[in-house]
Amino acid sequence: xxxxxxxxxxxxxxxxxxxxxxxxVCPDCEGRLTPIISGCPRCGHPTEDxxxxxxxxxxLALGLDLTVRSLYLYDExxxxxLHRYKFGGDVVLANQMRPxxxxxxxxxxxxxxxxxxxxRLRTRRFNQAEVxxxxxxxxxxxxxxxxxxxxxxxxxxxxxHRANPFTVQRLPRCGKIVLVDDxxxxxxxxxxxxxxxxxxxxxxxxxxxxxxxxxxLKMRPI
Length: 222
Hints:
Strand order of the largest sheet: 1-6-5-2
Largest sheet: 4 strands, parallel
Number of domains: 1
Distance between the termini: 34 Å
Shape: globular
Helix content: 25-40%
Number of strands: 6
Strand content: 15-25%
Structural class: alpha/beta
Radius of gyration: 18 Å
């Protein structure tokens, strides 16, 4: 059996269930992702003594208050994992995250994945955030619509100053929504989506993100 992340063969214990399993990840790759234990209380970025990071200070100065639970550092292992999952199309890799995502589930909460534009969805054929949201709990994927394509080619300042691409399709029926996305870079996507939902009448909005990118110039050793 070949690992879905590193593609290297490894031995697995055989059982009848083995024949049905399609999401094998080798022990080495299982242990390479770096969980975020402490850091910025608003987004998880590693900071000195758990202080609020520069990105979140900027958002608060703009009057945008959003707490994001980031699970893993977007280091080399995180980049490799997400490349296989998001761009390589190995959707079953998300099952590796099932145990940790299920621990985040709260009662009376609706999980809303950050949507893709129709163009991006046609190209990728699946929404990576939607798959993750389904693993957490009750999901609503039609609440928010996006009119934006990929931000991969945008710089940090271009991301921060882009126009808000999100619209609310209908009024939500719940009082608490948790947005779900794959990577937190500048926070623009999640903050703009949260602002749109609050303007539509949602009382409580927070977010969960699988990975948090690293500002290497500001980060202390971990």
